[in-house]
Amino acid sequence: MNELVATSSSLLTNEVGLHARPSVKLTKLAKTFASRIEVAASPDGPWVDAKSIVKVMAFKAAKGDTLHFRAAGPDAEQALLALRALVDEAFHEKSGESAGAADG
Amino acid sequence: MAELRLEGRPAAAGFAAGPLAPIAERSEAARIAGSPAEEQRRLRRAVAEALAELAALEARAEGDGADILAFQTAMLEDTELASPAFAAIAEGEAAEAAWSKALKAQIADYDASDNEHFKARASDIADIRDRVLARLGGGSLDTRLAAGSIVLARDLSPSRFLATDWSGGGAIALSAGSAHGHVATLARARGVPMIVGLGVDPAALPAGALALVDGERAALWVEPEPATRADFETRARRATQASRSAAGFRLKPATTQDGIRINVLINVASPAELDSLDPAACDGVGLVRTEFLFEGRRELPDEDAQLATYAKIVDWAAGRPVTIRTLDAGGDKPVAGLTLAGERNPFLGLRGVRLSLARPEVFRTQLRALCRAAALGPVEIMLPMIAVADELHASAALLDEEYAALRDAGIAARRPALGVMVETPAAAIAPELIDADFYSIGSNDLTQYVLAAARDSEAVAALYDPAHPAVLRLIAGVAAHGAARGRKVSLCGDAGGDPRLIARLLRAGLRALSVAPAAIGAVKQAIAACDLSAPP
Predict the structure, then answer these.
(1) What is the maximal distance between C-alpha atoms in chain B?
(2) Which of A79, B294, B408, B491 is the most buried (most CB within 10 A)?
(3) Is A20 helix (H, G, I), strand (E, B) or coil?
(4) C-alpha to C-alpha distance for B419 and B317, rounded to whole angstroms
């Protein structure tokens, strides 16, 4: 990723981690930004495209893991703020919802 | 063809009759590849068509079904999913083989996960694979089945379930399958009868033949004789009438004709059962079977993971009591690596609390998680298979130690009440020797031990009678002991869910029954019909 890189990190607090429904939400949100956005489960990478659910799900990130974001582009700062808010707000999952049939 | 009767395991209750619709396994015949450009075009078109199908399904689905489809759509829209396939096509592979291989790697990756939520995604990826393969072959996964069809397959994918119109009836009969999978959950929520584990080759049965599915007996009949059919219809009609009249009792407190309030609690084998259940229908959870914690893994989850599971149940119960039974492995519930292998008589062997005391490291972890859950709500701990007081004392000592350790570490915890299951004749004959905080009668094991008739032996099934006077007399003795000492007594075996036995159990002195969630309505209805002031 070239210069003008913004970075941010957030702790995963929702019950079952970055599973199907949160991954859908995260990648959909990332796609609303023009910037190139990458995500990693460790500050040293590997970094993957945050707009690719195939790559994001492949982390199998669990509750308690930290997600690291970096972005470059015209709306990089806004993108990181929005993604960070989504993770910090536990993907807006209702408690108990997380083990529903879609995730179990 | 003569009548054929097959038996499996129940996954969703209910009755259905209809034409048999066997779904054959996909043939893996290799196609000769066209030019790479042509194969890439075919795959691109098949993916686009599959996405259109998913969009159409998503428009009709709601809740969990819609979430599953949204996930599948997002995966298939992601060009990363197909990129290894396009690379393989460029090397000369046919679209089908390239796509199958690319998705096989993804499926294997999810299947290898230790986390059940990620592991379960393997079936979604397989679903996506099959949908695109069907389009490559010019067909569709969503081929319309005749209304009310009895779908017979090896296994069924969630998208296929959601693509099927169940409004005209129908049922699912699987040769493999799982009663705990996504499709079973969807089927129960939708009221579609479902049987799994039939062990038959779907292609071997005649398409379009009349089939009957009895979700309660877990039986499938193909081309039934007129007598079978008549018997089936009577049973189905009776079940419909019974569930209609029982439904009216579900959400009301249970009271006998002479005004005695009976607590009706539920038995929970898996927290997923609670998702579609209104806690107002019960007075609490009388039995949580913790063996489900082992599902799909070799050892018990750690303390935090257990706590999260217990907390969910406590949260659902919203202030109602939750009785959690410590691990009841052994007997007919072997757990690899934990229970003894090769016991000659496992029902009389190292099972229940005996095993927990023999493996204190496993037991202590569970007790710690339970103490922490008890800080969140009215949790009680129940010990299975207690025969002598020493087993209770030893367990209580471990519980006190773990509670003290948590408290010293400043971790939120409470020391829960410690009760016992009464299922050995020793405990039932002399409950006064076992000074527990509460007693819950495990009528299944108690019956088999009192009558010396194994629960799982068809040959002695006639002897296995929970209403035998000897069993009822023991139940009455335990109820009397509880009443005299001011200790709660309940019953959590299958007998409590059998409406024909309710009057006898109440007359034996029981005032609390813990039953399967599906039986709540019928049990409350049977209680309402009892008049304990009248002579039997």
Answers:
(1) 87
(2) B491
(3) helix
(4) 19
Residues of B marked active site are found at 182, 492
Contacts of B248 (CB under 8 A, 6+ apart): B521, B525
A101 contacts B275? CB cut-off 8 A: yes
- The alpha-carbon gap from A56 to the nearest alpha carbon of chain B, in Å, equals 10
Structural domains in chain A, CATH included, are 5-92 (3.30.1340.10)
Task: Give the tokens for residue B516.
Answer: 């399967």
Contact list, B117 vs chain A (CB under 8 Å): 16-17, 19-20, 99, 103-104
Report the topology of domain B4-24+142-243: Glucose Oxidase; domain 1 (3.50.30)
> If you count DSSP H runs as helices and E runs as strands, how many of each does chain A have, helices first?
3, 4
Domains of chain B, by residue range, sit at 4-24+142-243, 36-136, 248-528
Side-chain half-sphere CA neighbours of B424 within 13 A: 21
Q: Where are the beta strands (DSSP E) in B317-366?
A: 322-325
Selecting from B74, B109, B315 the residue whose C-beta is nearest the C-beta of A24 gives: B74
Maximum Cα–Cα distance across chain A: 43
What is the C-alpha separation between B26 and B33, in angstroms, rounded?
Answer: 19
Q: Structure tokens of B514?
A: 């813990």
Of B68, B109, B120, the CB nearest to A58: B109
Structure tokens of B241? 């009438």
Whether ipTM tops 0.90, in short, is: no
Judge contact between B474 and B425, C-beta under 8 A: yes
- CATH architecture of residue range(s) B248-528: Alpha-Beta Barrel (3.20)
Q: Per CATH, the architecture of B36-136 is what?
A: Orthogonal Bundle (1.10)
Model confidence band, residue A41 (pLDDT cutoffs 50, 70, 90): confident
Element holding B141 (H helix, E strand): none
pLDDT digits (tens, 9 = 90+) for B405-416: 999 999 999 999
Instruction: State the pairing for strand pair B194-196/B171-174.
Output: parallel
Asked if B435 and B393 count as a contact pair (C-beta separation under 8 A), the reply is no
pLDDT 10s digits, B111-120: 888 777 787 7
